[in-house]
Amino acid sequence: MNQTEKNVVIGGLAEKFGQAPLIALSQYRGLTVAQMTELRIQLRSVEGELLVAKNTLTWRAVMDTPNKVIEPLLSGPNVLAFGYGDPVTFAKVIDGYAAKNEKFEVKGAVMDGVLLDRKQLAKLATMPSKDELRAKLLALMMTPATMLVRVLSAPAQQLAQVLDARRRDLESSAPAESAGA
């Protein structure tokens, strides 16, 4: 690879590091092409991407950025997983895949310039995703409105029950009066 090609790769890596809020670095030695393809498909479904790059080119792409904290992980054959969407959902895919495939060893991750070890990434994967948090927030916001509707409709409902009870009383007493006349 000549210097021009290296510069293009470095530029592409730097751009990906700049766009992704979460980047996981893993050892993939022993995984088959089918297993790597399966992981790529899973990552695409959560706005992620899998990329194999040389450690020296990766280092040159991040050396002047907050992501330079990844340097201690740059040894041996590595695969970079870039998560462009929700970091929690991305972490769930990476952690779940690592749990299913012992040959896929997560070395660590970088999130907003902070180095995360395997345990911290696994802990991130246990958190609720953005969609789950939105659903909980919506439920919390809807609870007062639901309670207000119940409170406001209770008197009308009680009035309807009283009127219905009175109607039943009148209907039950009407045949008795007509029979006596």
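the 2nd protein, sequnce then structure:
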Amino acid sequence: MKSLLIIAIISLTAVINTLAQTKTMNVNSLDNILNTLYAVISGEKGEARDWELFKSLFHPDAKLIPSGKNKEGKYFARFMNPDDYIERSGPWLIENGFFEKEIHRQVDTFGNITQVFSTYESFRSQADKKPFMRGINSIQLLNDGERWWIITIYWMQESVANPIPEIYLPKD
């Protein structure tokens, strides 16, 4: 009986360490945190998202800020924290299917802060060939010496009146 308890404790510790290491790997480099960000919100219709992993990418005071034009044609910004985003967008992502793929990245770093302009294409399914939407995520990150934190994601969709500039598109 004592042997089974010891084996159970060792197994549980191994699982906890593996999970902790996996989460740490997701935030130990700029590439990893950005790739994880796109992967965690993407999934086929009906596929649950790992919202705990999503929240682990963000600084406790982080903001997600979609922008665009309202019905009156005026530009707006809506400020959310990660929980607000999950509440507002989570059900839609699962009900409709959603894949966001980065197609270009421009990175500027000074000290421990980084600004990324990440151009994306959005699809309903991974099998789709043509995106239903494109835009730019302006992502601000902090490296606290131990890991990367997303501080802000501020984004806007492309429109006929506001196409994505060539500088933010892939070079063929």
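The radius of gyration is 19 Å. The chain has one domain: 2-168.
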